[in-house]
């Protein structure tokens, strides 16, 4: 996929420039925290002058990192990953089940939001920080679709209450679209994301979630992507996504009741220890089995959470944990 990151370039309201740590993070060089450390160490320059903490980059200025000129017009990485149960959507590699080591992508990427550890399904990962808040911010009302199985038979009253709003976390959830699939399974489309929202909504109505799978984010669907594998989004999906976020706010996501899907991965990246990228050579239409490096956290398997039988996946999907051997898909 030859799409350029400039397709998602932030609006140039930046008469005052972009802070150097954000500039480097948006270019996919390092996290903001790592950028601050590099600035303090004198490894970053702006037009040949050493950058200072809080320095801003103006349009047309040249930035170097460790002597290398930084270009923000590199190829966009935007992949769709079918996350198994047990994988944690964090870039903190101290977590043995972190998504970065599980995928082992060849360049630095980070997840756009989160999907709960006990849940499975679609999550997007990218190297472009400019699109993160546009996709995640609840005020932009972007749809995310889930298939949910619960522990007892669904009633019309349950569907009505779920669809009209449920009191959780000192608020009432937005009205949403909900459709029953069978006695124990329903489809739900949300435009917001509170902490473990679907699970909390069900619990408030005396139901328990037995399996939860995200199948769509805006115009990007999970389709037949196998559990534990990822693919680059298509040109058609990219075009549709660009149209959907064209008028979306790019202001930072608020964290008051931030959810397991919507907590900003870009902001969380500031606190992570993710490594920088490596050469990429993967074709655009390639579907890849996510595999952890051989030397990553295998000695910590015994510490990994064991899942109860009542948290089994949907039929046809597999529940995987980071570090567990996998066959090529």
Strand content: 15-25%
The H-and-E topology, N to C, reads as: EHHEEEEEEHEEHEHEEEEHEEEHHE
Q: Assign the structural class, choosing from mainly alpha, mainly beta, alpha/beta, alpha+beta, or little secondary structure.
A: alpha+beta
Can you name the CATH architecture of the largest domain? 2-Layer Sandwich
Poorly predicted runs are: 1-7, 10-14, 254-285, 292-312, 318-329
Count of spatially separate domains: 2
Major beta-sheet overview:
10 strands, mixed
- CATH third-level topology of the largest domain: Pseudouridine synthase
CATH class of the largest domain: Alpha Beta
Q: Residue share in helices?
A: 10-25%
Intertermini distance: 22 Å
What is the helix tally? 8
What gyration radius follows from the Cα positions, in whole Å? 20 Å
Q: Oligomeric status of the shown chains?
A: single chain
CATH superfamily of the largest domain: Pseudouridine synthase
Shape: elongated
Number of strands: 18
Average pLDDT figure? 78
Tell me what you see in this structure:
The protein is of the alpha+beta class. The protein is built from 8 helices and 18 strands. The chain has 2 domains: 16-69, RNA-binding S4 domain (Structural Genomics Hypothetical 15.5 Kd Protein In mrcA-pckA Intergenic Region, Chain A); 78-269, 2-Layer Sandwich (Pseudouridine synthase), CATH 3.30.2350. Helix 1 crosses helix 2. The two termini are 22 Å apart.
């Amino acid at each position: 996929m030859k799409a350029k990151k400039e397709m998602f370039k932030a609006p140039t309201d930046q008469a005052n420039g972009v802070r150097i740590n954000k500039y480097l993070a948006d270019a996919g060089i390092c996290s903001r925290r790592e950028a601050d450390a590099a600035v303090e160490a004198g490894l970053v320059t702006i037009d040949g002058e050493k950058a200072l903490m809080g320095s801003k980059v103006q349009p047309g200025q040249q930035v170097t990192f460790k002597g290398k000129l930084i270009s923000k017009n590199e190829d966009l990485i935007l992949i769709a990953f079918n996350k198994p149960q047990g994988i944690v959507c964090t870039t903190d590699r101290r977590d043995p089940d972190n998504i970065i080591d599980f995928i082992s992508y060849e360049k630095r990427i980070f997840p756009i939001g989160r999907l709960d550890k006990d849940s499975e399904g679609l999550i997007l990962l990218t190297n472009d920080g400019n699109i993160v808040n546009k996709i995640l911010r609840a005020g932009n009302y972007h749809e995310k679709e889930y298939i949910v199985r619960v522990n007892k038979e669904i009633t019309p009253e349950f569907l009505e209450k779920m669809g009209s709003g449920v009191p959780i976390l000192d608020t009432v959830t937005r009205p949403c679209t909900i459709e029953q699939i069978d006695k124990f399974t329903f489809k739900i489309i949300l435009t917001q994301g509170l902490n473990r929202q679907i699970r909390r909504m069900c619990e408030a109505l005396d139901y328990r979630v037995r399996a939860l799978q995200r199948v769509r984010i805006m115009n990007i669907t999970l389709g037949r992507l196998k559990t534990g594998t990822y693919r680059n989004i298509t040109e058609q999906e990219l075009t549709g996504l660009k149209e959907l976020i064209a008028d979306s706010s790019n202001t930072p996501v608020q964290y008051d009741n931030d959810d397991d899907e919507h907590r900003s991965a870009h902001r969380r990246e500031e606190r992570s220890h993710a490594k920088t990228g490596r050469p990429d050579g993967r074709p655009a239409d390639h579907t890849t089995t996510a595999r952890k490096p051989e030397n990553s956290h295998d000695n910590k398997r015994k510490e990994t959470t064991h899942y109860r039988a009542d948290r089994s996946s949907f039929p046809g999907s597999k529940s995987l944990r980071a570090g567990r051997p996998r066959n090529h898909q």
